[in-house]
Amino acid sequence: MKKIMALLLVLSVVFMTACSSSTTESEVGAEVSGNASYPMTVVDQAGREVTIESEPQRLVSSYYITSSLFIALGIDDRIVGIESEPYKRNIYELSAPELLDLPWVGSPKDFDFEACVALEPDLVVLPLRLSDVADKLEKLDIDVLLVNPENEAGLIAMTELVATATNTSERGQELIAFIERVKTVLNDSLGDAQPVSVYLTGNSDFLSTSPKGMYQSDMIALAGGKNVAAEIDDTYWVEVSYEQVLVWNPQYIILAANAEYDVDSVMNDESLSICDAVINGNVYKLPAEAEAWDSPVPGTILGSLWLANVLYPDKITDEQCYDLIEEFYETFYGFSYSSITTAEAA
Amino acid sequence: MCALFLLSLFVGKYPFTIEGLLAGDERQWLVFKMLRLSRSIVGVAGGFALGVAGYIYQTVFRNSLASPDIIGVASGASAGAAFGILFFAESLMVTVSAFGGAFLAVVFTLLLASIDRSGRNSTVILAGIAVHAFAQTILMSLKLIADPEKELASIEYWIMGSLNGINSSSIGINVALIVISMIILIVLHRQALILASDEGEAKMLGLNVNGSRLLVLMTATVAVASVVSMTGLISFVGLVAPHVAKRLTRNNSISTMVLCGIVGACLLEAADILARSVAATELPVSIFTSIIGVPFLVFIIFKGGKGHE
Fold it and tell me: What distance in Å separates the CA atoms of residue A197 and residue B276, rounded to the nearest whole number?
């Protein structure tokens, strides 16, 4: 009888364990995988047709923006190679610390071709400027998607493309829906607001700024602001003079999230002492606790939200702003934003 | 030079008006004194210093291709600036670091050259080439570890040179050093000319060759380092100004040295006027020093050649 009881006990433990593992697997599967059929052909953001034979399980990203997208899509466990120096990105530590231990494949500046090939990836996602690398990888039968999230439409297109290729379209649509929801909140709340002028500074230097063609210009517009440098028709950081900044005389000066200098250095700069933004103390730095919202990462819409809260605190309240930020990171990155900001403040 | 200086006071993004300035418009006066005037002063003083220093280097080394980098000044300043950009956030520290880099490079060059007791100029030049190569290696290493989105962009922009960041609070010490260096070099003009002759002859004339060379070169280096630590590298002025001045005066008197300074000042001031006015953004000044300097030099050579015929 004891033997029968023991056997029943063992069988029940095995059964319960099996049930519990199958539940876990099915939960993960339901969370990220859709029902796409392979082989599938997609057109990447360079206009290349890429045929993917089966659902990619080994992903390589040499671009922090696509690495962040993989996390948001819930497929960070499929990443086998990542861009150089991932420890510089807080978001990995907060959301997917296992990425910090992965092999590096270089950066868009110095892509390590051999390191990438050695990882035997199913799919490599590269920025558009590495199109020559994509051609070489294709010759080795490695699928490559080229992406170009340098404006808002490009970011949405990149999200759809990567989500489709990795069979995570449902998650991708949730991400896009969140972005659209925040845009609606901004449009509805700021509809009749008088645009205030904003000067956004670059990471390297206070006198470098984002012209019309940069993502940051869209971010300011979405927040109801007017980018004073939008009159410059360019697509990369440009250098301007103190005199030009004084001619623009912006109402707000916003420092890039990763700026090498701080708010005090701008406030104490004698050459800017007659600028309205400095006189009124309207100099702020974009938060960088999680990631730089002034770069086209999936959470970049939060940059517009935060900026709208700074520019129009009566229209976009603190509560509205930080509730949405909290929801975003809990939903797509699995951590609490308020807990990290509280910890930093303490 | 005076005309260009005056012109530079009224070219730029901020819309000054004579009426506004005469009426004592406080805002206009503040911007004028703080930004425009100081930038114009640095254009003239910096160009003058680079021209005179170029003349000194070419004379002392008896090498018409000599420029501040022949003894490692420019590459030392670049490595120093890159170090400052990477490890210090403040722009003042970048200036100090660039100045220190330039000075350190020259000290190394002269120390290396002192190993050869014959005191030949060619040894100094060879030592300069070695220090230049070493400073370039340091610069490359610093660029390699620099963040491409932040520090690397700053280093690259610094190397291209610009008078954009100049304001009244940041130029005082550097301009004072330039003025003092220029006075010393004018006083030492005779020694510089003797150093250009054969070492034996110089010694026969009672000159302490090594001591005088050290003094003259260090003074010229202080002048160049004072300029480039404020503006970043400015190419071509130190090389072309002496050629133009010598072609115009056809002698090596003190007036030639002063003319080198005037040509350098005109070149840098004109280049800066273009750098701040031809586009909606600020452009690197070295582009324009070359664009203006090359045709001018070709014209002078062509005119000189026809004169000889």
Answer: 23
